[in-house]
Design goal:
mainly alpha, 188 residues
Length: 188
């Protein structure tokens, strides 16, 4: 005898689909850029190793390998900058900032975030312009549009902008939670 389960007979019910989709989207958001950087690094290393093997063992160097490795490195650099930005891994000189009162530090943090957003928006707009200018130019050996290579600039800036929005939302939530906990503490 075959028993067919109805769609509503799952232990979680129909509400499990949005939770699973949200978790999958969050997982993708957190790790997709890192996975792309890792993949491009593997491609670059394998391409260079293949070139060394072909040149010194077979005596017949590849004509396209240097270009592929270079363009992969360009994407690694810009996407890696976005990953570092997301994790707060860029170099920060905060010698003067840490000497200031907490409220001044918070205000300066918002000012710096605003300036970062302006710089990133400028990079996105100007990067798109560079991509458009180079859309008709092709790479010499790979014969791919150079706009694919130059697209690393606006894509990276857009990712950093999205990470900045995420960081701002987290900062606002943390501020509200802190304010709520201070309010409860004052009442008690």
């Amino acid at each position: 005898m075959i028993v067919k389960a109805s769609p509503d007979s799952s232990p979680r019910g129909s509400a499990s689909t949005p939770v699973t989709a949200a978790k999958a989207l969050q997982f993708f958001w957190r790790w997709s850029t890192e996975a792309i950087v890792a993949t491009l690094t593997a491609i670059m290393v394998l391409t260079i190793m293949l070139q060394v093997f072909c040149r010194f063992v077979l005596g017949n160097p590849l004509s396209w390998s240097e270009e592929l490795a270079r363009y992969a490195f360009v994407w690694i650099t810009f996407l890696g900058a976005a990953v570092a930005y997301r994790h707060g891994a860029h170099i920060v000189v905060d010698t003067v900032i840490v000497c200031l009162p907490r409220r001044v530090q918070a205000v300066l943090g918002w000012v710096v975030d605003g300036l970062i957003v302006i710089a990133l928006l400028t990079l996105v707009v100007q990067g798109v312009g560079i991509v458009e200018v180079n859309s008709s130019v092709e790479a010499t050996m790979l014969e791919i549009p150079m706009s694919w290579v130059y697209a690393s600039v606006p894509v990276s800036a857009a990712l950093m902008l999205a990470y900045q929005v995420e960081r701002t939302v987290q900062r606002i939530r943390a501020g509200r939670e802190f304010a709520a906990s201070q309010g409860k503490r004052d009442i008690a």
